Amino acid sequence: MTPRTAKALRSAGCVVAAAALATGCSGGGGGPDARPTGRTTETTTSLPSAVPPTTAPSPPPDDLPTPVRIDDGNATALSQGALTIMYTVDSTVDAGLRDAKLRAAGYFTDEYTAVVQAEVRQYVPTEWHKHRAYLAVRLRPLYKEQGAPTDGPTAAFRQWEMVTRPTGRDGWRGAPSRSVVYMELTRPSPRAPWRISSVSVSADG
Fold first, then answer.
1. CA gyration radius for the chain?
2. CATH of the domain at 108
3. Which of these, 177, 174, 205, lies nearest to 29 by C-alpha position?
4. What is the extent of the structural domain holding 181?
5. What distance in Å separates the CA atoms of residue 45 and residue 32, rounded to the nearest whole number?
6. Is the pLDDT of residue 6 over 60?
7. How many domains does the chain contain in total?
8. Is there a domain that residue 126 lies in?
9. pLDDT tens digit sequence for 134-143
10. What's the pLDDT at 46?
11. Is residue 115 part of a domain?
């Protein structure tokens, strides 16, 4: 990811949810609250722009396929585990994507936590509630683009192909959505644990 690309994607974070909600509904999965307009990573929405008070995220159900422990001394392991938690939206406990993201806040920098808390709320489609569905996440590491920043003792950069699919606990499945995710991680010293400082998501296709 070039610096120019990173700047263009800096405000990302909701497009996957919007695309997943849309595809999860278009084939009989309930209407989306917002749809991306092209490849931009910032989701447009008709919801009020005011940010409601942030409450503590609900603990995930025992059957939710998210990691329980993550090695925060390994940048790749941390980025993969935290990203899985962030996008595994569960209709039984989450109002929308922001709630799922905040379950991974322990792996964020304070600044990135504030960014997520300020995101406009999106809502899980009604169809997901009918099936007690969650957003299943599958990740594949990608090679860094030419000109992308290199890792250092206190900075790391990871890219993932992410495929998400609404998955009901009754066997129902919505349509999958594919995106590319760029993550920046930082730590104050080489011996400190990694923390996520930026997540940028670009819809594929």
1. 16
2. 3.10.450.230
3. 174
4. 3-30+71-203
5. 10
6. no
7. 1
8. yes
9. 999 999 999 8
10. 30
11. yes
What's the angle, vertex CA 102, arms to CA 101 and CA 106, rounded to 5?
110
C-alpha span between 94 and 59 (Å, rounded) = 10
Measured over the CA atoms of residue 20, residue 174, residue 46 and residue 38, the dihedral's sign is positive
Q: How far is CA 205 from CA 35, 76, 97, 180, in A?
A: 14, 25, 22, 10
Q: Could you read off the pLDDT of 169-189 as tens digits, one per residue?
A: 999 999 999 999 999 999 999
Cβ-contact 168, 155 below 8 angstroms? no
Is residue 65 a part of any domain in this protein? no
Tell whether 197 is covered by a domain. yes
CA torsion, ordered 18, 24, 29, 30, to nearest 10 deg: 0
pLDDT at residue 58, rounded to an integer: 67
Report how many helices (DSSP H) and strands (DSSP E) the chain contains, helices first: 6, 4
- Edge-to-edge order in the sheet of strand 177-186: 134-141, 155-167, 177-186, 195-203
Strand partners, 185: 156, 196
Residue 10 has pLDDT above 70, yes or no: no
Burial (CB count <10 Å: 0-12, 13-18, 19+), residue 194: buried
pTM comes to: 0.75
Indicate the length of the chain as a whole number: 205
Smallest CA-to-CA distance from 90 within 168, 29, 25, 179 is with 168
Structure tokens of 60?
A: 């995930």
Kindly list the distances between the CA atom of residue 196 and the CA atoms of 80, 134, 157, 199, in Å, as whole numbers in the listed order.
Answer: 11, 23, 10, 8
